[in-house]
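Reading a protein record of the kind used here takes only a little practice. An example makes this concrete, so a full record is given next.
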Amino acid sequence: MEDKNIALAKIKNVKGSARKTRLIVSEIKKLSPEEALDTLKFMNYRNTPVLIRVIKTALNNAELKKMNKPYKFEEFKVDEGITRKGIRFAKRAHVAILNKRYCNITVKISEKIDKDGTQS
């Protein structure tokens, strides 16, 4: 197996549920990282600024490793993070339990290589 150059960027405990963040990621992971950044600028979701920051970090790590352009997403993963419990007081001495969810985001970028082994 070939040894691929992979640039990695992670961020942990981002406020917002993993389920909602996966909706955004499913739209952009089939694009190139540069196209994904352009698309994220026009999306109006809570975690889009965080995703922009993580993709930019992965691109900078790829440049530090002296990887050749164009890039592609090798892996774009959103996992469950911690769940902070909270309470909200209701009428007549009732209490509602709130789950404040967080997520972990992992981005891996690699060089785009054609089927014949050459870089495109």
DSSP finds three helices and three strands in the chain. The domain at 6-111 is CATH 3.90.470.10 (Ribosomal Protein L22; Chain A). The mean pLDDT is 92.
